[in-house]
Structure formats: structure tokens, C-alpha cells
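Below is how a single chain appears once it has passed through the pipeline. First comes the sequence as given, then the structure the pipeline wrote out for it. We keep one example in the README because the format questions we get most often are answered faster by looking than by reading.
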Amino acid sequence: MINSAEPLVTKQRITHFLLHEWKDELEAKADSLKCQGEAFGEGDDPSEFDDWHSDSDKFLSTVVDFARWGAYGPIKGVEELREVFGFAERPYEPELDIRDETEFRPSGPYWTIQRLFEDL
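Resulting structure:
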């Protein structure tokens, strides 16, 4: 919506009350993402971490644009989220214990080592 219209016209149509509501929602989202990022540990699902990492990256880039466009100062929780985002480590994927458990039928007397040496 912001990019599709002239910024000055858009600012005239969006009230300060609405901007303040959006700011409150962004602060709540930043806090939620920060808490979620702090909760990741070694045993967590790496795909959940990847989803959080992607969401946080998109959120951080969007909130910077909003703060600049909305002429607001820093939005609470964004710096803490940025810090958690920078230090968060992806949980290790559990290594699958793949063993070759294929059982072979006895192939008969023709494939024994003793029989091979006899043929030499």
C-alpha cells in the first residue's frame, strides 16, 4: 500500500492513531519473535528454526522501512530481536543411523571362498 501511492498522499490519509496501532503491533511481533528465538535449543527441529529465521529476517527489514517511513523513532524490541537473530544458532539435525541390514540368502556352494580358490 505504501509503495503504490505517493508517500505524501498516503501519509495524509493514514492517521496518527493508525500509525500508533501499527507500531504497537510491530512491537508485539518483535517481542514474540525474540522470545521464540531465545527458546531454541539443541533438540529442536531445524526446520522450525529456519522458519523463524526467515520470518525474523523479513520482519527486521520491514520494520526498519516502517520506522523510517512513519517518522517514528526506534521500535521497542527490535534491537533485542536483532541481537537474538545475530547470535541464534541452528539446531543440529539428528544424524540418521542408517545401517545396511540387508540379509542375503546363501548363494550355494559355488560362491564360497574355498570354491573360488579351488577354481584358480
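The longest helix spans residues 46-69.

See the next section for the split statistics.
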